[in-house]
Amino acid sequence: WVLASANILEGVNVTSTPGIKDDLINAKAIWYNKEAVRDGHIISARRPPDLIYYLPLLIQALAE
Questions:
Q1: 3-state secondary structure 14-54
Q2: Is CB count within 10 Å lower at the N or C end of the chain?
């Protein structure tokens, strides 16, 4: 995950596929098992079927 490698996830709420959950937690992110999560300008989703939950968050962020 690029954001974890960039060390910018400390204290940021995120979700992801469970396969990289530990990587995100080790990057000090706050991981949730949810379809999509928005924390400021960072929007994350677990997997392609969850895009229906991701897209409204993206549209909301773009409108701000």
A1: ECCCHHHHHHHHHCCCEECCCCEEEECCEEEECCHHHHHHH
A2: C
Alpha carbon distance 21, 41 (integer Å): 20
Q: Output the six-digit token pair for 54.
A: 């991701």
pLDDT tens digit string along 16-54? Answer: 999 999 999 999 999 999 999 999 999 999 999 999 999
Per domain, the residue ranges of the chain are 2-63
> 2-63: which CATH topology?
Rossmann fold (3.40.50)
Q: Is the dihedral of CA 6, 11, 15, 18 positive or negative?
A: positive
Q: What is the value of pTM for the model shown? A: 0.90
Average pLDDT in the 55-59 region?
98
Amino acid code (one letter) for 51: L
